[in-house]
Amino acid sequence: MTQRPASSAASFITRCMPLDKLESAQGLKRVLGPGSLVALGVGATIGAGLFSLTGIAASENAGPAVILSFLIAAIACGFAGLCYSELASMIPIAGSAYTYAYVTLGELMAWIIGWDLVLEYAVGAATVAVSWSRYVVSLLDSWGLVLPPRLTASPFETVQMPDGSLTVGLMNLPAVFIIGLVSMILIRGISQSAKVNAVIVVIKLLVIAAFIGFGISYIHPANYHPFIPPNDGTFGHYGWSGIMRAAGTIFFAYVGFDAVSTTAQETKNPARDMPIGILGSLLVCSLAYIAFSFVMTGLVNYKDMLGDAAPVATAINRTPFHWLQLAVKIGIICGFTSVLMGMLLGQSRVFFAMSRDGLLPPMFSRTHPKFQTPWLSNIFFMIITCLLSAFLPISDLGHMTSIGTLLAFVLVCAGVMVLRRKSPDAPRAFRVPGGDLIPVLGILSCSAVMISLDKLTWIRLVVWLAIGMAIYLGYGRYRSVLARS
């Protein structure tokens, strides 16, 4: 029987992975360049948040000022992205914010942020898979190919049969299919995944450009008045509080760019390429979001989008280019596919890093003998995400994913300031300008968006973190590399 090493509360809370002893784990290929990283970030970011949440945020919270909500979220992400870039250039190891926290804030905080990233990636991927399924079913219906309704919905959802009768679903098979397909591509290798993702990203950006280019001529300026609808007396319902609530809602649209930092160990020159990938993908996505929301709210009055499950299609109907509906559906499906790829890739790399450090069982850090990818981690999350998307109606978890991402951003910004004091002379290929100003602004802006989210979202986050804490205290606290040493 293995004896557990004695460890005081203070030691496991404060023990950090020394920066000079943090070594790259063996087995992951360095094959990604700056172009692949930007494509990965764009692919993992533009998806459900843009195509579905924009209409919800405009109709329920901000009106045409949802444009400002995207801008506020982009600024908060920009501060965090600069901090990510500094840490990624210093610590080119798989694991993203988890690894940064382990070096700067201690093992306990590293576990919290790693467990938090499970929420961001795994639950977010399952949510996107369900949305992917719905758009694919709609596209196939338009081509005369009808899938059995009960095999495209969870047991908690009501479906209508061809004879008009109502029943409940059995499982969402299309969602299971796409998760399995993407997982197999990721197991096959990061370079192959990057090539597939690059093609998907090009298609997606072309569709977004077509929507903006063809739609801008049919904007009705009257739809922008009032630009900021007056608050109705309830926090979050229009006015400036509505703009902030909308920023929290559509923050789901920005959750993908930090997936770039999870691939630091597979990047050819991480000190140079990681800042390019992180900031480049964030810039492309921010410009696309602001332009997209400007055209959408100009084509359709925000009041007309209330309860609209497909606001993009509604907007296209206000133009004479109905062929765009088919193109946008294909673009949305491509968008969801690349988001799934980024989320499942990021999750497997975070678990790889946590397992390497002893906080999780060693199976998650084993690499495939031929493909040199963490294949067991990929398979584990393929199974978990398939079960979630097949049997649970989880499409309402966008807020939950957003708050998890915002928490990670706050801790990364804090980590930059801590590491500057702990290791002021450590090499930094990229340094955030302005001293502590940008990290502090990142903490304040992300915290402000978090505060604007509803109480139920906060309760879910606390419950999720409590479950993770129980796992850490029962396993990782005693079996981590630092505890054993």
Describe the structure.
- It is a multi-pass membrane protein.
- This is Amino acid transporter.
- Keywords: Membrane, Transmembrane, Transmembrane helix, Transport.
- It holds the Pfam family AA_permease_2.
- It is found in: Membrane.
- The chain is mainly alpha-helical and 485 residues long.
- The chain has a single domain, classed as Amino acid/polyamine transporter I.
- The chain is built from 18 helices and two strands.
- It has helices at 9-14, 34-45, 48-51, 53-62, 66-90, 97-104, 107-142, 173-188, 190-215, 239-250, 270-299, 311-316, 323-356, 375-391, 398-422, 437-451, 455-479, 481-484, and strands at residues 158-160, 166-168.
- The protein has a two-stranded antiparallel sheet.
- Strand 1 (158-160) and strand 2 (166-168) form a beta hairpin.
- Helix 4 runs antiparallel to helix 10 (239-250).
- The two termini are 18 Å apart.
- The relative contact order is 0.21.
- The model is unreliable at 1-7 (pLDDT under 50).
Summary tags:
Amino acid/polyamine transporter I, mainly alpha, 485 residues, disordered N terminus, 18 helices
